Amino acid sequence: MLRRNPSGDRPVIAESAYIDHTAIICGKVIIHDHVFVGPYAVIRADEVDELGQMEPITIGANSNIQDGVVIHSKSGAAVTIGEQTSIAHRAIIHGPCKVGNRVFIGFNSVLFNCSVGDGCVVRHNAVVDGCDLPAHFHVTSSQRLGPKTDLSTLPKVSISAAEFSEDVARTNIDLVKGYKALQNEF
């Protein structure tokens, strides 16, 4: 369901994107080409800052926002999801937040007030809160990173983890094509 926010902003969605009919896309949201937004995802840009302004939530081309994901932002701050990035089931991305290109964010993970560099893998049930993760770092399952985390202790993304991320992104691009072909059947 596409909704206008209280400020009057409407989502802008590329024609080639696929948005499941149970998803809610509200307000100042920009979704680029070949993006997959799965069932029950919520992408909501509706809060303003102290001046009444709001930055958009932007989803880059060929990315996927899977089932039950919530993307929102505090006080009108920007949320940017890069290209060929996968946000897995029930993850929460809360702005301000920037997620780079070719990133994998695992099931139930939470990102808030952070940036995640290109090629990173954040595994399932992890939390990245208040820190900036450089490119190609690997956050293991259930790990919590905060402002005082020593990032030098984190491993770099392995070849197999990078291949897994690429495979998930590729699979979801195929889903966009398949669901777009079925779109007029329902």
Q: In short, what is this structure?
A:
With 186 residues, the protein is mainly beta. It contains one helix and 20 strands. InterPro entries: CA_gamma_LbH, Gamma-CA, Hexapep, Trimer_LpxA-like_sf.
Outline the secondary-structure elements.
Elements lengths: L1 E2 L8 E2 L4 E2 L4 E4 L1 E3 L4 E2 L4 E4 L11 E3 L4 E2 L4 E4 L5 E3 L4 E2 L4 E8 L4 E2 L4 E7 L4 E2 L4 E3 L2 E2 L4 E2 L4 E2 L13 H24 L4
Parallel strand pairs: 1-4, 2-5, 3-6, 4-7, 5-8, 6-9, 7-10, 8-11, 9-12, 10-13, 11-13, 12-14, 13-15, 14-16, 15-17, 15-18, 16-19, 17-20
Describe this structure in words.
- This is Carbonate dehydratase.
- Belongs to the gamma-class carbonic anhydrase family.
- InterPro entries: CA_gamma_LbH (IPR047223), Gamma-CA (IPR052265), Hexapep (IPR001451), Trimer_LpxA-like_sf (IPR011004).
- It contains one helix and 20 strands.
- With 186 residues, it is mainly beta.
- It has one domain: UDP N-Acetylglucosamine Acyltransferase, domain 1.
- The strands form two sheets. Strands 1, 2, 4, 5, 7, 8, 10, 11, 13, 15, 17, 18 and 20 form a 13-stranded parallel sheet that branches. The protein has a seven-stranded parallel sheet with strand order 3-6-9-12-14-16-19.
- The radius of gyration is 16 Å and the shape is globular.
- It starts with a strand and ends with a helix.
- The mean pLDDT is 95.
